[in-house]
Amino acid sequence: MKIIRNIIAISGGGFSEEVNAYIDEYIIKQVSDCSFVNICFISTASNDADGYIHKFYQSFSTFNTSHITIKDMMNPSIQDIINTQHILYVGGGNTQFMLNKWKETNFDSVIKKAYNNGIILAGISAGAMCWFEKCYSERDDDTYEEFNGLGILNGSLCPHYNDPIRKKAFDLWESKQNYFPVYKLEDNQNLHFRNEELIARIDTKGCLCN
Would the pLDDT of 55 be above 90? Predict the structure, then answer.
């Protein structure tokens, strides 16, 4: 049976901002049997903020939910734990902090293996940027810099493109890039990649397939 790989990149919205968000329903529907879904929240980018994790459990209460903290990533059985999931949902926050923690704990390899086994990857903001080759985002002092993403998808993605400061910084950086695709998403604009190819653009009104 051929393995189908899915990544859904969310610019804004989702359970952190909306009740019964369309994009969250869309993600769930990508599981072949929606009546039984294991969905796991990865909260690294927020440094495992309790309130964020609680909101995830509230929003997906009708499904089999779990979450992974930074401490959990050091569990010797973490790959086996992740492999039981249908969906990995990565939260927003500090992208570079998240990627550094994943690399330190080898969790980046865990996620890539899960993806190659057909587990759906979804994420908002930091959790949308991280799948690409390159990221361009804020440091702790609000200055912007380039750093490597996971490299599963070609190019780079800018979420929250409707923010004028982010837009200006990203456009300047993009003007110096000429070798990969760049995706710019305003809040509530989202992308669905299947087998590393863009197949759909999704907003609050529904899906526009490519």
Answer: yes
